[in-house]
Amino acid sequence: MTCLPALSHRMTQLATIMMCVSAIWFFTSCDARNQNTTTTQTFERPMKSPPPRFVPYEVLVKFKEGISHERIASILKNNGMDVIAEIQRGRLYHVRIVDNRSVESAITQLTSYQEIEYAEPNYRYDTQK
Description:
- This protein is α+β, with helices and mostly antiparallel strands.
- It has a domain at about 55-125: Peptidase S8 propeptide/proteinase inhibitor I9 (Alpha-Beta Plaits, 2-Layer Sandwich), CATH 3.30.70.80.
- The protein has helices spanning about 5-35, 70-80, 105-110; strands spanning about 55-65, 80-85, 90-95, 115-125.
- A four-stranded antiparallel beta sheet has the order 2-3-1-4, covered by helices on one side.
- The longest helix is centred in the first third of the chain and has 35 residues, at about 5-35.
- The chain is rod-shaped and about 120 Å long.
């Protein structure tokens, strides 16, 4: 009969351990199942295309020093460009592309002239508030 209380105590311990293991298994399996089915909602702004970094069909062209106004007018006319504004005493011109060429294409064409120091898009700049 001395074995019976020890056996009863052992059975109680075993039952307790099994209940703990079952509880842990149950809670972890529920968490895993919920993680797979629960959708996390995040706030995303609607995707708008960013405004172009430069003004379409407008280019800034800087001519090298000493180029005549006639030669400048000839280069711009031959490349299908109208002058919007003359800046820096006739060396820097703000021009508009008359045809449907891209700004990049016009710049490539303009920079092939040795009289042109540089040509670049009319970039947009935003001020911070």
